[in-house]
């Protein structure tokens, strides 16, 4: 799997992991967070490598479905983009307005939580 796809799945996992079943959560955590191999997960959980792979594929499908339905990643990225643009405009045109600068900082920090 390429790094771009792995990063995308990690981002989806960060947003939606609590919506997965406990079994899906365990498999995804071991594979994507703890960086265990399929064989290591299979050995630890007492299942076949194929069972691990199937569960991970189903879990990734669930994460992608959550994003299609909820769009939280997309919305968060858009908020980041708008906050960045707004910050630039405020710094360039309203650098003396402390209240406006503080509001922009608050908007930028929303997605950091």
N-to-C SSE series? HHHHHH
Strand content: under 5%
Helix content: over 70%
Low-pLDDT regions:
none
* Radius of gyration computed on alpha carbons: 19 Å
**Shape, please?**
elongated
Distance between the termini: 29 Å
CATH superfamily of the largest domain: Winged helix-like DNA-binding domain superfamily/Winged helix DNA-binding domain
Number of helices: 6
Number of strands: 0
CATH topology value of the largest domain: Arc Repressor Mutant, subunit A
Reading off the top of the CATH hierarchy, the class of the largest domain is best stated as: Mainly Alpha
**Backbone structural class:** mainly alpha
Question: What is the number of domains?
Answer: 2
Q: Indicate the mean pLDDT.
A: 93
How would you sum up the major sheet? none
């Amino acid at each position: 799997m390429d790094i771009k796809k792995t990063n995308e799945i990690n981002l989806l996992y960060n947003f939606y992991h609590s919506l997965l079943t406990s079994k899906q959560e365990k498999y995804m955590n071991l594979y994507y967070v703890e960086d265990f191999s399929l064989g290591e997960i299979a050995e630890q959980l007492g299942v076949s490598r194929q069972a691990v792979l199937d569960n991970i594929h189903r879990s990734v499908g669930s994460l992608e479905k959550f994003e299609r339905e909820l769009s939280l990643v997309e919305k968060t990225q858009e908020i980041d983009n708008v906050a960045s643009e707004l910050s630039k405009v405020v710094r360039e045109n309203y650098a003396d307005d402390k209240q406006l600068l503080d509001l922009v900082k608050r908007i930028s920090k929303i997605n950091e939580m």
